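Quick one, tokens below. Sequence please?
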């Protein structure tokens, strides 16, 4: 029963997933490992059963608590951009949400440290990732804008919500050569930005317009 649930049928079947992967290729995603993860991660288990038939549409979907599961293209784009400069051993994810982005990234890095401010979402994500057998994920219920200093420095930081300005703590927790992927700006004006920390400066590269929920401080 569990295997059938993960494999999916009908609108969650392998054929449906292949169509999604082809759409992502057409939109410029070229990293084969990332495309393979999008194909093989069962996105339908990360959304409510009532939305399962829409799980492989290239769109964001609600997951409760005013949050969304990110559009597959955005997950693929951010993952590809994070890994573009080389392998990442130690990664911080800010905004675990339902755990879908975590599941896509997990086998592509050595360790993920993921933070979520909404405890019921974190609990649910932990269950889903355990169900998928992903063991290189460390979870924390906390304020992601503060980073996770105990496990810094990070080779990569991926932020799944949009601050108005980038939290300085996240920049400081990057190792030299590390990359920070973050959507920045107010609703309707957000840009996905990649920051790369150098010895004496931080490089900034705008990757294009995006739409994310705002990054909030504190815990819930």
């Amino acid at each position: 029963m569990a295997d059938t649930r993960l494999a999916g049928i009908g609108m969650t079947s392998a054929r449906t997933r292949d169509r999604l992967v082809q759409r992502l290729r057409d939109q410029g995603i070229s990293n084969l490992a990332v495309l393979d993860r999008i194909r093989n991660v069962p996105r339908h288990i990360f959304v409510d059963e009532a939305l399962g038939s829409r799980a492989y549409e290239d769109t964001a979907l609600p997951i409760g608590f005013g949050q969304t599961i990110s559009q597959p293209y955005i997950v693929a784009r951010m993952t590809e951009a994070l890994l573009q400069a080389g392998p990442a051993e130690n990664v911080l994810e800010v905004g675990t949400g339902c755990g879908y982005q975590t599941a896509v990234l997990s086998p592509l890095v050595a360790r993920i440290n993921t933070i979520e401010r909404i405890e019921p979402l974190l609990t649910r994500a932990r269950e889903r990732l355990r169900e998928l057998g992903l063991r290189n994920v460390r979870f924390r219920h906390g304020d992601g804008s503060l980073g996770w200093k105990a496990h810094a420095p990070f080779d990569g930081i991926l932020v799944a919500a949009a601050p108005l300005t980038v939290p300085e703590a996240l920049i400081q927790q990057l190792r030299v050569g590390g990359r920070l992927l973050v959507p920045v700006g107010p609703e309707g004006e957000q840009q996905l930005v990649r920051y790369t920390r150098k010895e004496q400066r931080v490089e900034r590269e705008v990757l294009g317009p995006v739409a994310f929920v705002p990054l909030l401080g504190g815990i819930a």
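The CA atoms of residues 2 and 131 lie 9 Å apart. The two ends are 34 Å apart (CA to CA).
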